[in-house]
């Protein structure tokens, strides 16, 4: 710290006169009203509203991540330092600027204000049956969505940030004249959801670098010609432990077995009845059905970070998810986002 900055306290043991300068380290982390002097305020025992011990902890955390699990850029930081996280993953801000979508690409109605009006109007209405032309448009949107997911998955490796994966998804989407559906949907700030380890869903891409042994779910949605495709999968980052491998296998099996039930007249509850026993037999629990989100262990609960999006397990155990977009046909089901 600069020795020219003065302490607010008239009783400062360093003899500095009053000052109204805030501690820049605390201010960067969103903590206001914490004043300091040139000899470091936690040594001078004057830190404004923070205790000496708390202020020193804040400075130590700002100098390095909580552990090697949370590695970002040299200027990255945890925006919610006082939040009680359930596991080891931390958000690593600042978030990059909102990515641009060229004007010539059709935007969904919520792109400007974040509010999905058509979705609100459809609430409580019976599902709409697509005609042949609409089905073809859905096939196209879903094929493009799968292409983008596969491109993003090919870049998963230790050291890449989830923000870099977001950029890859964004660019691959607009190269196909599509709009990344998550972007500004109910004010979501990014073009894809990336959920790491104990994050169940809706993880916001940020500056954290993926680590050897992580698992990451990449959830891609793409808007094209008036229709959304939606697909996600969970991937290993380098070598992962046996428990994580089992979790990924179990989650994929839950989805595959439930797809087999899909046909005209099938009941949603029967899909859940198929997923639950598979999860339990493998020592896992189910958060939601249809697009199975499966947790290690027997706790299906979730908690949300202060960003109002990121959902994590309550016991810090890992979670995985797989999802496909399906077309129910007269005699069965067609997986529109099926990979090669």
From TrEMBL:
Keywords: Aminopeptidase, Cytoplasm, Hydrolase, Metal-binding, Protease, Zinc, Zinc-finger
Record's cofactor remark: Binds 2 divalent metal cations per subunit. Has a high-affinity and a low affinity metal-binding site. The true nature of the physiological cofactor is under debate. The enzyme is active with zinc, cobalt, manganese or divalent iron ions. Has high activity with zinc; zinc cofactor is transferred into the active site region by the ZNG1 zinc chaperone. Binds 2 divalent metal cations per subunit. Has a high-affinity and a low affinity metal-binding site. The true nature of the physiological cofactor is under debate. The enzyme is active with cobalt, zinc, manganese or divalent iron ions.
Binding site for a protein: 202
Residue sites binding Zn(2+) 4 per the record: 230, 291, 323
GO biological process: proteolysis
Gene3D superfamilies with a match to the protein in the record: Creatinase/methionine aminopeptidase superfamily
PROSITE patterns: ZF_C6H2
Record-linked CDD domains: MetAP1
Binding positions (Zn(2+) 3): 219, 230, 323
Catalysed reactions, as listed in the record: Release of N-terminal amino acids, preferentially methionine, from peptides and arylamides
EC number from the UniProt entry: 3.4.11.18
Cofactor(s) required for function per UniProt: Zn(2+); Co(2+); Mn(2+); Fe(2+)
Molecular function GO terms recorded: initiator methionyl aminopeptidase activity; metalloaminopeptidase activity; zinc ion binding
Function: Cotranslationally removes the N-terminal methionine from nascent proteins. The N-terminal methionine is often cleaved when the second residue in the primary sequence is small and uncharged (Met-Ala-, Cys, Gly, Pro, Ser, Thr, or Val).
Quaternary structure and partners: Associates with the 60S ribosomal subunit of the 80S translational complex.
Database matches in NCBIfam families: met_pdase_I
Family according to the record: Belongs to the peptidase M24A family. Methionine aminopeptidase type 1 subfamily.
Protein name according to UniProt: Methionine aminopeptidase
Organism (species): Tetrapyrgos nigripes
